[in-house]
Amino acid sequence: MGLSRRGLMATAIVSPWLMRAGDALAQGIQPKRGGTLTTIVNPEPPVLHVGVNNQAPTLIVGGKIFQGLLRYSAKLEPMPELAKSWEVSADGLEYTFHLQENVKFHDGQPMTAEDVVFSIMKFHMEVSPRARGVFARIKEGVAVDANTVKFVLSAPFEPFLLMFDVTVSAIVPKHLFDGQDYRQAPAVQKPIGTGPFRFVEWQRGNFIRLERFDGYWKPGQPYLDSIIYRVVPDSQSRRLALETGQVQLTQSNDIEPFDVPQMRARPNLEVQTAGWEYFGPLMWLELNHRVKPLDDVRVRKALAHAVNRDFIAQRLWFGIGKPATGPVASSTRFYDASAKMPAYNVEAAKKLLDEAGLKPNGQGVRFTIRHLSLPYGEVFTRLGEFLRQSLRQVGVDLQLESVDVGTWAQRTANWEFDTTINYLYQYGDPTLGVERSYVSTNIKKILFSNVAGYANPKVDALFTQARDAADPKARQAAFSEVQKLLVEEVPLVWLMEMAFPTIYDRKLNNVITSGAGVHASFDDVFLA
Amino acid sequence: MKEFWRNFARNRGAVVGLAILLGVLALALLAPLLYPGSPWDMAGMPFAPPGEMGMLLGTDSLGRDVAAGIAHGARVSLLVGAVSTVVALVIGVSLGAFAGYLGGWADDVVMRFTEFFQTIPSFVLAILLVAIFTPTIGSIVFAIAVVSWPPVARVVRAEFLSLRSREFVQASEVLGKSRLSIVFGDILPNALSPIVVLASLMVASAILLESALSFLGLGDPNMMSWGFLIGSGRSVIRIAWWMSVFPGIAIFLTVLSLNLVGEGLSDALNPRLTRNRGGKA
Amino acid sequence: MGASKLPGYLLGRVVKAAIVVLAIVVCNFFLIHAAPGDPASIIAGQSGAADAKFLEQLRAQFGLDQPLHVQLWLYLKGVLTLDLGFSHRQQMPVSTLLWDRLPATLLLTGAAFLFAVGLGVTMGALAARRVGTWGDSVITVLALAFYATPLFWVGLMLVLLFSVTLEWLPSFGMASVGVEMSGLEAVLDVGRHLILPGLTLGLFYVAVYARLTRATMLEVADQDFVKTARAKGVPEGRILRRHILRNALLPVITFAGIQAGQLVGGSILVETVFAWPGIGRLAFEALLARDYQVLMGVFFCTSVMVVLFNLVTDLLYALVDPRVEASA
C-alpha cells in the first residue's frame, strides 16, 4: 500500500513550513524579505473570487489571497494550511479539524471556526458545483469551539480529505457574505481572504496587483512585498516578457510547448513540469457513442490503435506531459499500471475495421466522421490536424470543424459532435475526477458529464462500489477492475497526461512546493 | 481593345504585375501536378529548415511541406479573395451608384444602411458571422464580402455626387438619355479608376482578413490557405521563420501584382490621364 | 449652405443618426444572441466542473432565463436612459468597463491615425508630383509593402528589433507597473509604450492614404479648373495646395470617416500582440466569452462614435468641395 493512502487516513501533524525553510537552507539560501514578483495571468480572469469563479487563472491569483484548510504534497498527502492538525474517526464518518491560531482576514477580522463552517456548509454548497457534489454528504458541520471544526458524514467517503485545497474550498469571511446573494456580494469585487497577499488593484486588461498582508498568521512571512500579474494575451509577447526579464515567472498555458525547449536552454531560467499532480489533467479524444460506427467497440479500439500517442507527447507537446495509458492518470490515486489501452499499431487497427465490416471505398475511405477542434490554442489545432492524418492512414476520414470556445462548449454539452478533444482534471482521486466521465447516471447535456453517452452497468457498479467503500484496499480492487474493463471497451481514446510548464527566474525560490504548484499561497516564495 | 492594351502596356509596372499575377495563377492551377497528394501529409521531420530533407521551403511543426502548402494554398486564397471581392463590388457599386445619382431620400436610406454596417467594427462582425455560421469556406467568403462593401459604396457615392453635377452629365440629361444609361454609360466609366484601385486593394485585404480569421482559429480547417500557413507560422516565428516568411512573400507578391495591374487598368481606362502621362514621360 | 440652414440640418442629421444607432442596437442584439453558446455554458466550460443547478443559477443571475424579447426590451430601456447594463461575468457595470478601456484605444488609434494620414498624404502627394519616375515607384512599392505585410508580422519584427535586440522600447503593456513616477515621467513612459503599437497599426493605413492621395491627385490635376488656373499663370505650388490637394482630399476624408468604424476592429490584433488594454480586445474577449452586455456596449459606443464622425465628414465635404452641397 502506498504511503499516500495511509497518509490520508492517519492523523498528520507535521510542520511543512519549517520543513520548507529547511529545504531552502539545504541549498545554502537564506529566505530574504522584500522584492516584487512580476508574472503573467492568462487569460484574464472575470472575477478574482475563488468559488464564485473556478477558472484556472482565478484559482492561481485567488490562491494567493485565500487559503484552504489543507494543502497537498505531490503524492497527494494532506499537509496543514489553515488547519494545523486533524483527526478522522475509526468508522470514517467524523472529521475534526484544529485550526491555526491568530489567523486574520485582510479586513482585520479574526478567522474562526464559524467562518470555516459557513464556507463549507453554505458558501461552497451554493456556488461551487464541484464542492456541492461531495459536501452534500456532510450530515452535520459544527464549530466545536473557536478553533475546532467537526464534520459528520452520512456515509464514509474516503477521498473526503482531498476536498480542502484552496482551489476547492477556500475559507471565506462569513461576515461579508452571510445573508447576501453570494455571487453578487460586494466582497466578490474586493476579495478578502486569509492569504499572505491582499488584493490592492486591478486595471482590467492590464494588471492585477497584490501586496503583502502584514497581519499574515505565519510570523515573518510572506517574503515578497508584492506580486503583479500582468495581462498579456499573446503567447509570443509572453515569451518575450520572460526572456527580457520583464516577468520572472510564467505558468499554466502561458508559454506554448514548442517554445519550451528554447526556454530550457537559457541559463537563467528554470523549467519545471511538476506541480499539477493534485489536478492530474488527462486529455482524450471524446467519442459520441450515439454516432455510428463509434458505438462498435472494435471501431473504438481501432481508433485507439491508429493514434501514435508518443508523437503527440513528444512532437506536439515537446515532452511536456506523457502518453496516457488508460482512463486514470498515473499521478492520481488508485492508478493501475497493469491496465493498458491498445498500443499504436496501424495494422491491428485496419484488421479491426475490416472485422467490423467497414471496407475501404475507391478512395480508401471506410467511413467519414466530423471532429470538433478544441479552441484552446495553436497546439490543439495541430492535434486535430495530426489526428486527421493518423486516421486517414487506416481509412477513416476525419473532417475538421474549427469553432470558438462558446460554440465548442455548447455543441459538446449538447452532444452535437462526432468526436472532439477534451481534458479534465482528476482531482487526485478517481471518484472525484474520473467517475463522472463514464457512469451512465451522469449522461447529461452538460459539459464534463458523460457526454459520450457510454453506458455499462458493470462500470457503474464498480465506480459506486469504489465510491462507497471506506477501506482503501477495497477501493483499489474496484478501481483496478474498472480500469481493466475500460481499457478493453475504450469508451474514449485517452491521449495524454497533461502537464504545464512552470518557468521562472532562478533567483526565485520555492515556487513549486506542493501538488498544486503555482496555485499555492507563495508565502514562502522569495527572491534571492 | 488594341488601344487599351497599348495604354496598359505603357505602364511597365503593370506589365510586371500582370506577369507575377499570371505566375501565381499558374501555380494555383498546377498545384496538383507540382505537389501531388495532400498538402496536409506529414512528409518530413518537423521544423526542417529550407533546403533540408528535400524540402525547398522547409517543413512546419508537423513536418508538412511548406512549398506544397503555398502551391495548394494559392488556390484557396485567390478564390477567397476574388469571390468575396466580386460579391462586395456588386453590392457596393450598385448601392453607391443608386445613392449618389438619385440623391435625396434614396441617398439617405442607402447611406443609413451603409452607416449601419460601418459602425460595427468590421473585424468583430466578421468573427461574429463566421462564429454563427461555423467556419467554412462559404461562410468566410460571405463574412468578408459583408464587411468589405461599405467603403465601395461610399467611394462610389462620393464620385457620383461629384460627377453628376459635371457638364457632361448635365449634357446627357438635356439630351434626354435614360437614367440607367447615364449611370452606367456616362458616370460609372468616369468613376472607375478609384473603384479599380479599391478592388485591387480589396482582394488583398480579403486575403489578409482570411489570414486573420485563420489565425484566430476561425479558418476552414479543411482548406489549406496562405492565411492558414501564416497563422500557424506566426506563433513559431522565432523557431521557424520560413513558415511565415514564405507564405508572407506569396501574399506580398500577389497583393503587389494586383495593385500594379489595378493601376495599369486605371491608366488604360482613363485615357485623358494617360495622355497626360504619356506627354510627361 | 447658408449659416441659417445649419442648425436645422444638424438637427435632422442627429435624429437620423439616433435612429441608425437604435437599429444597430436591435440588430446587434439578435446577431449576438444567434451565436451558439451562452455566457453560462462558457463559464461552466472554463471552470472544469458544472451541474444543472450551477447553470440554472448562472442563467437566472444573468437574466438569460427570460424570453428573448423581454431581454431586448430591458436592454433597450436601459440604453435609452444611457444605462449600458451590467456584465454579470465580470460583476461590473458595462459603462465602467468601457470607460476604463476607451482612453487606451483612443490614444492608440488616434496616434496611429495621425501618423497614417500625415505620412500617407505626404507620400501620396510626393508620388503624384513625380508620377512615372523612380521616386514614384519607390514610394508606391513601399506603401504596398506596408499594406501587404500582415500586422502581427510587422509588430513582431518591430518588437524583435527594438525590444529584444536594441532594448530601446518595452514590448508590451501601456505603462510600467509598480514604479513610482512623476506626471511628466508617466506621460513619457506611456509614450514609449505607444511607439511600437502605434507604428504597427499606422503603417497599415499609410498605404491606403498614400495610394488614395496619389490616385485622386493625378485625376484632379487633369481637370479643367486646374488647367484654367495653370493657363492663368497661378504658381505651381499654389495650384498644388489650393486646387489639387484640396480637391484630392475628398476621398481621403471619405476614408478617414470609414476608418472611424474600423478603429476598434483594426486594433484588435495590435492590442493583442502588444497587450494594450483597449476596447478592441475587450470586444474580442467579450465575443469569445459571449459576454453579451459588454459586446453590445462596445458596439453601441463605436456606433455613436462613427455616426458623429460621419457627420463631421459630411460637413467637411461641404467646406472642402464647393460643388457638393450638403443635402439635408
UniProtKB/TrEMBL annotation, chain B:
<feature type="transmembrane region" description="Helical">
    <location>
        <begin position="195"/>
        <end position="218"/>
    </location>
</feature>
<dbReference type="InterPro" id="IPR035906">
    <property type="entry name" value="MetI-like_sf"/>
</dbReference>
<dbReference type="InterPro" id="IPR050366">
    <property type="entry name" value="BP-dependent_transpt_permease"/>
</dbReference>
<feature type="transmembrane region" description="Helical">
    <location>
        <begin position="12"/>
        <end position="35"/>
    </location>
</feature>
<keyword id="KW-0571">Peptide transport</keyword>
<comment type="similarity">
    <text>Belongs to the binding-protein-dependent transport system permease family.</text>
</comment>
<keyword id="KW-0812">Transmembrane</keyword>
<dbReference type="Pfam" id="PF12911">
    <property type="entry name" value="OppC_N"/>
</dbReference>
<keyword id="KW-0653">Protein transport</keyword>
<keyword id="KW-1133">Transmembrane helix</keyword>
<dbReference type="GO" id="GO:0015833">
    <property type="term" value="P:peptide transport"/>
</dbReference>
<dbReference type="Pfam" id="PF00528">
    <property type="entry name" value="BPD_transp_1"/>
</dbReference>
<feature type="transmembrane region" description="Helical">
    <location>
        <begin position="239"/>
        <end position="261"/>
    </location>
</feature>
<feature type="transmembrane region" description="Helical">
    <location>
        <begin position="123"/>
        <end position="147"/>
    </location>
</feature>
<dbReference type="InterPro" id="IPR025966">
    <property type="entry name" value="OppC_N"/>
</dbReference>
<dbReference type="GO" id="GO:0005886">
    <property type="term" value="C:plasma membrane"/>
</dbReference>
<dbReference type="GO" id="GO:0015031">
    <property type="term" value="P:protein transport"/>
</dbReference>
<dbReference type="InterPro" id="IPR000515">
    <property type="entry name" value="MetI-like"/>
</dbReference>
<feature type="transmembrane region" description="Helical">
    <location>
        <begin position="78"/>
        <end position="102"/>
    </location>
</feature>
<feature type="domain" description="ABC transmembrane type-1">
    <location>
        <begin position="74"/>
        <end position="262"/>
    </location>
</feature>
<keyword id="KW-1003">Cell membrane</keyword>
<dbReference type="GO" id="GO:0055085">
    <property type="term" value="P:transmembrane transport"/>
</dbReference>
<keyword id="KW-0813">Transport</keyword>
<keyword id="KW-0472">Membrane</keyword>
<protein>
    <submittedName>
        <fullName>ABC transporter permease</fullName>
    </submittedName>
</protein>
